[in-house]
Write a structure and sequence with these properties.
- Helices cover 79% and strands 0% of the residues.
- The protein starts with 5 loop residues before the first helix and ends with a helix.
Length: 174
């Protein structure tokens, strides 16, 4: 059952890449992103990070880590609870869906984007491994995984924007 801790672990590995690269990458690529801003919502989203300090972004990452660790702890301590299972499953699905955003950005821009390396090397195998454990040990079935897709998709945006909003309120920018 220790596999439940893979979720916060793969998250923090992935987001460390984003913390390290996001600000410098945006500064260097802002002019390249402008033509895509109207066509792709993720570009408008990425450009908003230009007004976020590294400390604020890091704060948002730790808020998200706290939420994922909480979901993992809930599932670890209440594995028989259908609600705990579905919350954990939905967060795993949200993180798994998130990786496609990074890969899509790199494909569209035909270059490296922050988070794409760990999306490919950590999130894909880690997410699949979590799904494998959940299925193999009969915690969930394929129907529940499929149901978690819209839930996970909906969870992504309030988590990202909510954690960033809270972090910006708690940590002053320069």
């Amino acid at each position: 059952m220790l596999f439940v801790w893979l979720l916060p672990l793969i998250f923090i590995i992935h987001d460390t890449e984003e913390i390290i690269t996001m600000q410098s990458w945006l500064a260097a690529n802002r002019p390249r992103l402008r033509p895509y801003e109207e066509r792709f919502r993720f570009i408008r989203y990425a450009l908003k990070f230009n007004n976020v300090t590294k400390a604020q972004f890091t704060g948002a990452v730790f808020i998200e880590l706290f939420v994922l660790a909480g979901a993992s702890a809930l599932f670890f301590s209440s594995a028989q609870s259908e609600a705990a299972k579905f919350i954990y499953l939905s967060f795993n699905t949200a993180l798994f869906i998130h990786l496609f955003m990074h890969v899509g950005q790199s494909v569209i821009l035909k270059s490296y984007t922050p988070g794409v390396i760990t999306s490919l090397l950590v999130l894909i195998p880690g997410g699949i491994l979590i799904y494998k454990f959940l299925l193999q040990w009969d915690f969930v079935n394929m129907t529940q995984i499929l149901i978690s897709i819209p839930t996970g998709t909906v969870l992504i945006f309030p988590i990202l924007f909510g954690s960033l909003f809270i972090s910006k309120k708690l940590i002053r920018g320069n």
